[in-house]
Design a protein that fits this description.
about 120 residues; alpha/beta; five-stranded parallel beta sheet; 5 strands; about 20% strand; globular
Length: about 120
């Protein structure tokens, strides 16, 4: 699968990218939501790992814009501190899963397996 990681925390994004690559997936990392939307328009992806809190455009606004052009693209929300209202809104916008950043590497295999099953 081709995975796009959108996270402004470079260290977290790089760790996540290495973990995804080690499972045989192709990965692109961007540290800005606008750049993520641009890349999706140009190159597409099979799934997105998306941070909630980023400067300029947060993950919820990214999801709103994404759903206009990619209504069914699987998105896994990764967050360190999202409140219940953000998570509720993300679920309303159709995220495939919500994973807390401290647990993301541990639960990465489960999240990717779930996406792969849905694509079959």
């Amino acid at each position: 699968m081709r995975i796009l990681i959108v996270d402004d925390e470079i260290v977290v994004a790089d760790l996540l990218a290495e973990a995804v690559k080690s499972q045989g997936h192709e990965v692109t990392v961007v540290n800005d939501a606008q750049e993520g939307l641009r890349l999706l328009r140009q190159q597409g992806a099979d799934a997105v790992f998306l941070d909630v809190y980023m400067p300029e455009m947060n993950g919820i606004e990214f999801l709103r814009r994404l759903r206009r052009t990619h209504p069914t693209l699987p998105v896994i929300l990764i967050t360190g501190q999202a409140g219940p209202e953000d998570i509720d809104e993300a679920r309303r916008l159709g995220v495939a899963d919500v994973v807390e950043k401290p647990k993301i590497i541990k639960h990465l295999s489960e999240a990717l397996a779930s996406l792969e099953r849905k694509q079959l």
